[in-house]
Amino acid sequence: MKKTKFVSVHGGHSGQFCSHARDTLDEIVQRYIELKFEWIGITDHVYPLSNQFRYPDEAAAGLDVANLTLRFTEYITTCRLLQKKYQDKITIFTAFETETYSGYKEFIPSVIRQFQPDYVVGSVHHVNDICIDYSKEDYNRVADDLGGVSQLYCQYFDIQYDMIKSIEPAVVGHFDLIRLFDENYSERLKSPEIWQRITRNLDLIRQKNLIMDFNLRALLKGASEPYISAPILAEAQKRGILVLPGDDSHGIKDPGVNMEHGIEILRRAGFDTDWQKPSLYMLK
């Protein structure tokens, strides 16, 4: 049987340009080359719209919007240089990961126009303008404000739907990240009000012919399955949605971790592992 090629549709966070990652971007790209990845999308976080939306590690480091904007500019420049430097060894896409807080519908398109990435990963990390994947305390605080964890799920998937409609990212990142701090997620997903939103979002992804990120970092952090969880993955497969592995690497130790396992899950679920590259972002 022909060995399936390694790719990452959502990878390459580096300590050089992300405060919660490690190592330089060049070192991480070299690691992808060592592991014989065919292509990778480097998808570091967009800089924040305001200081309010900094990640806690960025605030702790004393970085403000001006600093982070300069860092993001350097990130794009560096990634473009690495594309050329290693073009004979690996295909690199210069991309970035979006946010979904107040003002993002105007902010993200402006960033796209200015920096012209190869594509964007549409991710949801914020609900009601609070980051829900950085700490369990913040996750619970937002859930309490909304009336419970189930309501948090509903709000998350509503925000995700709105983001897909407005931004049309080539790749939808870690679709069910909202289950991160929920030990009961497998039962919660069966709730009609939540499941209806999930299938609605999947229908939109298929309609727009977007790729879903099969995010393997969940396994690295101790989860029993990647983002996307099995029942959602089965619905994506029924709809003919493209699902590609993303290692969401945050340092040189991460590329390739659980990649063979993730590919096998996708193969057994009936997905095509002759990977299609993301569509390059077309400015509207």
Query: Which geometry do the CA atoms define?
Result: globular
Q: Which architecture does the CATH hierarchy give at level 2?
A: Alpha-Beta Barrel
Please state the structural category: alpha/beta
Mean pLDDT reading: 95
At the fold tier of CATH, the topology name is TIM Barrel
Order of helices and strands: EHEHHEHEEEHHEHHEHHEH
Strand order of the largest sheet: 1-2-3-4-7-8-9
CATH superfamily: Metal-dependent hydrolases
Report on this structure.
This protein has one domain: Metal-dependent hydrolases (TIM Barrel, Alpha-Beta Barrel), CATH 3.20.20.140. Helices cover 43% and strands 15% of the residues. The protein is built from eleven helices and nine strands. It has helices spanning 25-34, 56-60, 65-85, 104-115, 136-146, 149-167, 185-188, 192-207, 217-220, 230-238, 259-268; strands spanning 6-11, 37-45, 91-97, 119-122, 126-127, 130-131, 171-172, 211-215, 242-246. A seven-stranded parallel β-sheet has the order 1-2-3-4-7-8-9. The longest helix has 21 residues, at 65-85. The N and C termini lie far apart (42 Å).
